[in-house]
C-alpha cells in the first residue's frame, strides 16, 4: 500500500485550522481498490490456511471472498458519511465507533451469510469466529488508515506553512522605491499619490492573505497595479505588452505567482538598462493547460547565471506549482540571445 503525497486544494484551511480527520476518505477509487485487493488477499489466506494448496478449494474461496468483500465494502460505505462526525470527536471515541461499526457489520454479514449459504442453519460458533477475525484484521486495517491520515495531514500542514513563508517574501527595495514614488507625488499630484497608496495596499494585502488559488483575473489585475507603480518610477524606460486571450471564468492561479516573475523581469531586465526595454506578458490557454510566458531583455554585461534573486524566485514558484499541481505543472526559464524567457504551464482545471 502506497501513500500519495499531499497536494493543496483551493479550499484547504490554513495549517492552524486544519481539521484532524480520523480516517481518510474510504470512498475514493484508490481507497476502494486497496480495500478490495486487501480483502481478496485475506480471503485467499483464510482458504489456504483452512484447506491447503492441494487440492485447492475454489468453492470455499468464492464463499469466503463474498463474505469478506461484503464486510469490507459495507464498512467503508458506512464510515464515509461518518467522517465529519468522527473528526469532531476524541480519538478514543472515534476509534470505538469505527471499530464497533466494523464488528457490527461482520455480525450481520455472518448471520445473513449463514442463512443464505448454509441453508438456513445458524452456527453461533462460526459467528464468533468471524467476529474474532474481524476484530484482529479490522483493528489492523483501521490503525493503518488512521496512521496514514495523520501523516498526510501533517505533511499538508508542513507544506502549507512552507508556502506561506515563501509567499510572504516581498523585496524590501520595492517597498522603499514605491514609498519614494509616493513622496515625490504628494506635492505635484496628490490624487495619483493616493491611487498609488491604494495599489500598494492591495499588493501587500494579497501577500498577507492565506495562500490558495485565486481567479486569474484577480492576479492579472494585481500585476497591472504593480506595473503602474513601477512605471511611475521608471517612466518611459518601462514598456509592457500584455497578450491576454479569453480565459474561462473557472481558470485559477496560485496567488502571487505571476507578480514575482514580472518583478524579476523589471528588476533584472529593465532597471539596469539606461534605455529601458519591453516586457512581454502572455497568458493563453494551450491544450487544456494555461501557458504563461514573460519575456524581458537581458541586461548588458550581466550573466544569466549571476541572478541569485531570480533563482530564489524561480525555486519559490517551482515549489508552489508542485504543491498545487504535482507533475502536471512545469516551469522553464533561461536566456535566448538577448531575451530572457520564463514559461509556466499548468492545468486549466486544478482537479486535473
Set out the fold topology.
Blueprint: H1 29-51, H2 58-87, H3 91-117, H4 124-167, H5 172-188, H6 190-208, E1 213-215, H7 216-234, E2 238-244, E3 252-254, H8 258-270, E4 277-286, E5 289-297, H9 308-325, E6 330-336, E7 339-347
Parallel strand pairs: 2-4
Antiparallel strand pairs: 1-3, 4-5, 5-7, 6-7
Q: Please, could you describe this protein's structure?
A:
The chain is an alpha+beta fold and 352 residues long. It contains nine helices and seven strands, in the order H-H-H-H-H-H-E-H-E-E-H-E-E-H-E-E. The strands form two sheets. The chain has a five-stranded mixed β-sheet. It has a two-stranded antiparallel sheet with strand order 1-3. Helix 2 (58-87) packs antiparallel against helix 3 (91-117) and helix 8 packs antiparallel against helix 9 (308-325). The longest helix is centred in the middle third of the chain and has 44 residues, at 124-167. The two termini are 23 Å apart. Mean pLDDT is 79; it is low at 1-6, 10-19 and 301-306.
